């Protein structure tokens, strides 16, 4: 049996307007990761393998959690959000959202256009994004053990689509809910990938940590 614990990185630089600017943990993001690491040490600390993508916010989260990374795999890198946003504005006249309510309507439109192949000149097709993530998850499932995977919200959304057979709107709704430093648990048993936990933040449950429950 393989047990996969997926973690979204801690809060990044949410004020950024490009990918490079976004890709660093905020002080709160470091704190979220440290609290998550402490929670795992108190509960079930051992992992046979620790995977991250190659992004600073992902590797920084694993390190702030107190784990040595055994493998960085670019298949765990996030979708190219800023490039998709530029493409949908330039090609379909849909502007970037200005608040969380607008973002909740905007992200599903971006994913829908991308999945339909309606966004030209983007760094990666939706099909490639799908294949790289499902391929990695399937590879990991064929090795028994407990694996920590520190990645991003869009990747976790795709893993949920793969596990549960979600349609594109369903995947977008899942992506909108994935919190910074959240835990997601999958098991590969009976030749099937099963979801055990989605979007848990046990390290942020107490009222004094309510301020640290963030989406961006
Ligand atoms: O899907 C998104 O909202 C953005 O791509 C953010 O991704 P992240 O999980 O790497 O912050």
Automatic annotation (TrEMBL):
Q: Quick check: keyword Hydrolase in the entry?
A: yes
Q: Does the keyword Methyltransferase apply?
A: no
Q: Which Pfam families match?
A: His_Phos_1
For this UniProt record, give its keywords in alphabetical order, as a comma-separated list.
Hydrolase, Isomerase
Identify the SUPFAM superfamilies for this entry. Phosphoglycerate mutase-like
What is the superkingdom listed in this entry's lineage? Bacteria
- Identify which top EC class this enzyme belongs to: isomerase
What's the Enzyme Commission number for this chain? 5.4.2.11
Q: What InterPro entries does the annotation carry?
A: His_Pase_superF_clade-1, His_PPase_superfam, Mito_Ser/Thr_phosphatase
Q: Name one GO molecular function term.
A: phosphoglycerate mutase activity
Q: Which PANTHER family does this UniProt record tie to the protein?
A: PHOSPHOGLYCERATE MUTASE-RELATED, SERINE_THREONINE-PROTEIN PHOSPHATASE PGAM5, MITOCHONDRIAL
In its UniProt entry, what is this protein called? Answer: 2,3-bisphosphoglycerate-dependent phosphoglycerate mutase
Give the taxonomic lineage as stored in the record.
Answer: Bacteria, Pseudomonadati, Pseudomonadota, Alphaproteobacteria, Rhodobacterales
């Amino acid at each position: 049996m393989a047990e996969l614990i997926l973690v979204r990185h801690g809060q990044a630089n949410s004020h950024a307007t490009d990918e490079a600017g976004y890709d660093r943990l905020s002080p709160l993001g470091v704190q979220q990761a440290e609290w998550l690491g402490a929670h795992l040490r108190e509960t079930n600390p051992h992992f046979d393998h620790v995977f991250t993508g190659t992004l600073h916010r992902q590797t920084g989260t694993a390190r702030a959690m107190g784990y040595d990374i055994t493998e960085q795999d670019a298949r765990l890198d996030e979708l190219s959000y800023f490039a998709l946003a530029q493409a949908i504005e330039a090609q379909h006249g849909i502007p970037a959202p200005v608040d969380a309510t607008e973002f909740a309507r905007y992200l599903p439109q971006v994913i829908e256009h991308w999945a339909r192949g309606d966004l030209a000149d983007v760094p990666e097709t939706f099909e490639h994004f799908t294949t790289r993530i499902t391929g990695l998850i399937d590879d990991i499932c064929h090795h028994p053990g407990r694996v920590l995977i520190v990645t991003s919200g869009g990747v976790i959304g795709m893993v949920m689509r793969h596990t549960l057979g979600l349609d594109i709107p369903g995947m977008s709704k899942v992506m909108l809910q994935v919190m910074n430093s959240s835990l997601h648990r999958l098991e590969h048993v009976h030749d099937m990938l099963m979801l055990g936990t989605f979007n848990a933040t046990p390290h942020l449950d107490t009222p004094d940590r309510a301020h640290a429950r963030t989406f961006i």
